[in-house]
Amino acid sequence: MRLLILGTGPFAVPMFKSLLASEHEVLALVTRPTPPARDRDKAPPNPMRAEAERRGLAIHAPDSINSAEGEQLVRDLAPELLVVCDYGQILSADVLGLAPLGGINLHASLLPRYRGAAPIHWALLKGDDETGVTVIHMTPRLDAGPILATRRTLIGSDETQPELEARLAELGIEPVHEAIALLAQWDRTSPIGTLQDAAHATSALRLRKEHGAVDWTRSAEQIRNQVRALKPWPGTYTYWHRPGEEPLRLVIDEVSATARGLRAAIRGAGLEGEDALALAGHLPADPVDHEPGQIVLCDGKQLIVATGDGGLSILALQPAGKKRMSIEQFLRGYRLRTGDKFGPA
């Protein structure tokens, strides 16, 4: 089958490589234009462009695939099917109509859940236990077409956004081939696929920088999920309010949620005397005794912060203008004390 691939980001690369190695004819790659350079004159990465260049495949980057230029490009290439993944633009009905079989899209969620630009981030932010990939037959509405193929997977308890994205990208290879095979047998008039139930649709809006700010009144587990979800951008950040100095911005890179309400747990277990001391260990205070954002423990090796529910142990962070540090490295260089506060700038 004659395929035209539309993609930009890393999620599309495993599927792209698989189609290039298949019996199908990949005509070209359509990708997003390269934006102006940033960060010491380095252009933002485009993994799909890099892979196409390595394979010697034709590359096109119209400002809009829905423009007259974009439509003419598709007409000239004359694909039977458009294969879209991590592209960054919604295709119009006119563009989809230029390919006899229309278009398919590989999406990183179990649709209709998490329609939009950041499905993996939002699955982690919400603390979901399961996710997957869906291949749809495209319509002009965002991620709303009938479902052609899906694959499900459990989310690891400590899995981060980059790790989950890489795993889902590989998981998406087989259902893309399955969807193409299904369309190859289609009569082009009968209904195909399973319609999505719009009543169960949820949104996965594009992330903004402010999504990274920590709200310490949330639970330790919710903040832990935020740290997992927002790597590498926008990152999870807070400010250390230092007495007599400007607040210092800290990007929190690795955490664990501590047991909720240590003293309450001891009382609930009915422990007294030596048994209670053995369970309590050497913690001088309990997160429930502190305001959200207040430092509960800072002993040179541990940093535990009170939250709205439980304590958050910070294992690694990055102060503004510095490199990532383990918590031991940070506490050797900065005079953080028990009772200090983290919060908004």
The CATH superfamily title of the largest domain: Formyl transferase, N-terminal domain
Order of helices and strands: EHEHEHEHEHEEHHHEEHHEEEEHE
Reading off the top of the CATH hierarchy, the class of the largest domain is best stated as Alpha Beta
Q: Reading side by side through the largest sheet, how are the strands ordered?
A: 3-2-1-4-5-6-7
Topology readout:
Layout (H helix, E strand, L loop, with lengths): L1 E6 L5 H8 L4 E6 L16 H9 L3 E2 L7 H10 L3 E5 L7 H4 L6 E5 L11 H7 L4 E8 L9 E8 L6 H11 L1 H12 L35 H10 L6 E6 L6 E10 L4 H7 L4 H8 L14 E4 L4 E4 L4 E9 L5 E2 H7 L7 E3 L2
Description:
The chain has 345 residues and is an alpha/beta fold. The chain has two domains: 2-200, Rossmann fold; 209-343, Formyl transferase, C-terminal domain (Methionyl-tRNA Fmet Formyltransferase, Chain A, domain 2, Roll), CATH 3.10.25. Helices cover 27% and strands 23% of the residues. A seven-stranded mixed beta sheet has the order 3-2-1-4-5-6-7, sandwiched between helices. Strands 8, 9, 10, 11, 12, 13 and 14 form a seven-stranded antiparallel beta sheet that branches. Helix 1 crosses helix 7 (173-184) and helix 5 runs antiparallel to helix 8 (220-229). It starts with a strand and ends with a strand. The model is unreliable at 261-269 and 273-284 (pLDDT under 50).
